[in-house]
Every structure is written in C-alpha cells, then in structure tokens.
Amino acid sequence: MDLISLPGLTSLPALDHPELVAPRVAAALASWAAADGVAVVEIPPELADTAAMSAAYDLPLSAGVNCVVVAGRREGEERVAACLVRADTRADVNHTVKRLLDVRKPSFLPMGRAVTESEMEYGGITPVGLPDGWRLLVDARVPDVETAIIGSGVRRSKLLLPGALLAQLPGAEVVEGLAG
Questions:
Q1: Is it the case that residue 79 has pLDDT exceeding 90?
Q2: Does residue 1 have a pLDDT over 60?
C-alpha cells in the first residue's frame, strides 16, 4: 500500500517508527494486519489540537478525526466508549452515545483517567491500541475520509491513514448518526 502524505509534512511508515507513537499504539500497530497503510508525521506538540494543526498546515477540519472518550453507568456497571468523529462535527453524546451505551447520563471521561487508562497523552488519544473493555464507536462519515488525521498516543505526532481503515480497527462499530 502506498504511504499517505500531506503537503508540508514528512510521512514515515508508522510500523518503522515506533519512537514517534505511544508504546501502546506501537504494540497495536505491530499486531494489526492493516497497519502497513498507516503513516506517522512528526509535528510540534503545540499543534496537537486538531484546530491548531489544521490552521498551521492549511488542512480541512473534515480530514481530522477526533477520538473522544465517554463513560456512563447503568446498574453499577461503568461503560466506556471511544467515539471517532470528524473534527468538523461533534459526537452526539446525549442521544446516540447514551442509547448505544445504555446508560443514564453519559459524560466525557475525566482527563486524568483517560490519560492513565489509555496510556496515551492528552490531546493524542487515538483509537489504535485502546484498553480492553472500551467500545470503539465510529461515525458512519469517518470511513469516507480520504486521508484521516488522528492522534498517535503522543502530542508530537499524528497518524495518517484512509478513513476506511478506522472502520477496520479491532472492535470498531460503525454507527449512523454518531455525530451531528
């Protein structure tokens, strides 16, 4: 598979550069058959937020794919999901995510917990290498993104891959209307 690239960024094969991603992400990439289609680009950490990177490299927000972590409880059981949505949309936490998780009141997982449990840096949390037990919900528009820009587990780089590959991640559930 050809390596994806973007103007102004040097794309490297993610499998060959584990030093540019979180250890948990490197391990997940090494065991994922589709990882040969994943590139990594090094960026200044201050550009880790999608809007900042999009502005700095003149990229459309629709190419950015955000991973937000949501949790809720039902009958004493906590249910956690990572939700993948295009950066020009927002996850429908109060309706779609609430229904899918079957919880009373969903909310974003507190930053400290998200970082500790994912073993990834805040602003770099990615769907590649999520903890066991977390669901992975993918908005139905994400697979249509030609070149998706996602976190790498650290703030100093991003992963580039076809959006269709995100729907092929282990445990991925493609959901119509996950984002609005």
A1: yes
A2: no
**Mean pLDDT confidence for 113-134:** 96
Coil vs helix vs strand at 166: helix
Mean pLDDT over residues 74-96, rounded?
96
**Ramachandran quadrant class, 119 (left: phi over 0; alpha: psi -120 to 50; beta: rest):** left
Q: Which two tokens stand for residue 136?
A: 């992975």
**Which domains does the chain carry?**
11-175 (3.90.960.10)
5 has a pLDDT exceeding 80: no
Whole-angstrom Cα distance, residue 88 to residue 90? 7
Would you state the pLDDT for residue 130?
Answer: 96
Measured CA to CA in angstroms, residue 100 lies from 14, 68, 141, 162, 171 at distances of 32, 15, 17, 25, 14
- Name the token pair of 140: 């139905």
DSSP 91-145: B-IIIIIHHHHT-SS-EEPPHHHHHHHHTS-TT---STTPPTT-EEEEETTGGG-
Q: Which secondary-structure segment (H or E) carries 150?
A: strand 148-151
